[in-house]
């Protein structure tokens, strides 16, 4: 694997303006080993994540790399503007990616979950961190320093292609959001954001699909690029139409199809 691909990944990531992308993302499967009825819990990862896409050998080696740490909810994993070059693998985690806006507010940019990698752009092109990453729940992470991460990508060219593919998808996602913000009113933007989060991280409950990520109103407003008063109005209309139900940092999508219709999303 030459350096050209690694440099290209870093360039795409800077254009995207985010760390690595898309409830904690880890699903625990139990399998019987047939030895005295003993069972072992085997984690699997969402297919949108790096660990969910890697071949078994590459995934196993990446999981054995670096230094493991446990962090409490609220801990800052990466800091915007920091001159660092390590990457962080989210082993069992739920995190929020945010950045400062020109008016001083903190804008939520994305959610990252178990199986995702964050901080890879700085590791690949030696630029300052473009966003902060904070643990939303107690999390287990692995810190992998730049030489070890680059050696891993050289050893597993397919893994480098997976990283490039994920970064390219984030660029497409960011571009779509820019178009949404310029083209749609707040209610439609909110519907599109909720539909995206529900489809990726939602959990089926009797009433519908619960978004199990604790998001504040300001954070949702940031995701929708909307003023909080406009977001409150859009939520009220969705509740009155019985499309969503809300509580403290909790949203249940009662009618996913109706939500997609409001969001002008293709079936």
Output the keywords.
Jelly Rolls, four-stranded antiparallel sheet, 2 domains, alpha+beta, disordered N terminus, 267 residues, Arc Repressor Mutant, subunit A
Overall pLDDT confidence: 83
Largest sheet: 4 strands, antiparallel
User: Mind telling me the C-alpha Rg?
Assistant: 19 Å
How far apart, in Å, are the first and last alpha carbons?
40 Å
What's the number of domains? Answer: 2
Order of adjacent strands in the largest pleated sheet: 3-10-5-8
- The number of E-state strands comes to 14
Q: State the helical fraction.
A: 40-55%
CATH H-tier superfamily of the largest domain: Jelly Rolls
CATH class of the largest domain: Mainly Beta
The class by helix and strand makeup works out as alpha+beta
Principal-axis shape: globular
Separate helix tally: 10
- The topology string of helices and strands comes to HEEHHEEEEEEHEEHHHEEHHEEH
Flag low-confidence runs.
1-5, 7-24, 26-42
CATH arch. level architecture of the largest domain: Sandwich
**CATH topology assignment of the largest domain:** Jelly Rolls
β-sheet strand percentage: 25-35%
């Amino acid at each position: 694997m030459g350096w050209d691909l690694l440099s290209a990944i870093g360039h795409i990531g800077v254009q995207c303006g985010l760390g690595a992308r898309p409830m904690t993302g880890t699903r625990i499967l139990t399998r019987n080993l047939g030895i005295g009825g003993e069972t072992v819990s085997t984690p699997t990862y969402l297919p949108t994540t790096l660990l969910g896409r890697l071949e078994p050998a590459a995934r196993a080696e990446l999981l054995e790399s670096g230094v493991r740490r446990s962090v409490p909810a609220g801990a800052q994993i990466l800091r915007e503007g920091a001159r660092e070059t390590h990457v962080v693998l989210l082993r069992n985690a739920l995190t929020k990616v945010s950045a400062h806006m020109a008016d001083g507010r903190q804008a939520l940019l994305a959610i990252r979950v178990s199986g995702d990698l964050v901080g890879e752009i700085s590791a690949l092109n030696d630029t300052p961190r473009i966003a902060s990453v904070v643990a939303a729940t107690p999390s287990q992470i692995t810190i992998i320093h730049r030489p070890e991460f680059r050696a891993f990508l050289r050893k597993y060219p397919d893994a480098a292609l997976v990283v490039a593919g994920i970064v390219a998808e984030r660029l497409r996602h960011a571009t779509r959001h820019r178009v949404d913000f310029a083209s749609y009113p707040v209610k439609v933007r909110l519907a599109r954001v909720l539909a995206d989060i529900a489809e990726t991280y939602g959990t089926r409950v009797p009433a519908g699909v619960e978004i199990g990520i604790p998001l504040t109103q300001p954070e949702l407003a940031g995701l929708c690029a909307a003023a909080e008063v406009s977001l409150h109005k859009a939520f009220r209309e969705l509740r009155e139409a019985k499309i969503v139900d809300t509580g403290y940092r909790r949203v249940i999508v009662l009618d996913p199809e109706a939500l997609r219709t409001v969001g002008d999303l293709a079936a």
